[in-house]
Amino acid sequence: DLTLLTVMSCLPVAQAIEEACHSVPTIKWPNDVKLKGRKVAGVLVEACYRGGEPRFLILGIGVNLNTEPGHLRSPEAGSMADLCGKKLDQEHFMNVLLFKLDDMYARFRKGDRDLSLYERYSESLGKEVEVRLGDQHVKGKAMHLDADGSLVLRSDDGMIYRATSIHDVISLDRGQVRFETGNVH
């Protein structure tokens, strides 16, 4: 459930950003949140296993809230304050984010795996994508998220593929997305 929990954890982050900036962010599957095309937040879920069973999970969320643009390390990164045009109240943002995360996690623990809200924020659903699975390149349309949070795509020849969380999503021109192993920060 790590991929699913990662994807679901992006939703409260996107909601908090939308509330703070009055602008709809996008989620770059599986774990980046963008505002006006710039990465402003990222989510990471890790598990600690003992005897093959998960003992606990760690959820990490990084948000470029009031970061000065000159202090950002990547040209793809953005500062929410800069993109929103105003300095943001850190305490208020954290309260909103934690409330939304708590609500999402409570529903998750009760078995609620509803990903319908993801469509509102998705950067890749419905777009042409390219997936690199090892040495194989697959082009097709990102159709939907599977029940486990994997991205399902249909290739040009009609085959169905699933991209899992080990793939990184990079936006391309004209609404295309490419998935590769590795990370882009």
Task: Describe the fold and architecture.
It contains four helices and ten strands, in the order H-E-E-E-E-H-H-H-E-E-E-E-E-E. The chain has helices at about 1-20, 80-85, 90-110, 120, and strands at about 25-30, 30-35, 40-50, 55-65, 130-135, 135-145, 150-155, 160-165, 165-170, 175-180. The chain has a six-stranded mixed sheet, with no helix packed on it. It folds into two domains: about 1-120, BirA Bifunctional Protein, domain 2 (2-Layer Sandwich); about 125-180, SH3 type barrels (Roll), CATH 2.30.30.100. The longest helix is centred in the first third of the chain and has 20 residues, at about 1-20. Residues about 170-175 and about 180-185 have low confidence and may be disordered. The chain is of the alpha+beta class. A hairpin with a 5-residue loop joins strand 9 and strand 10 (about 175-180).
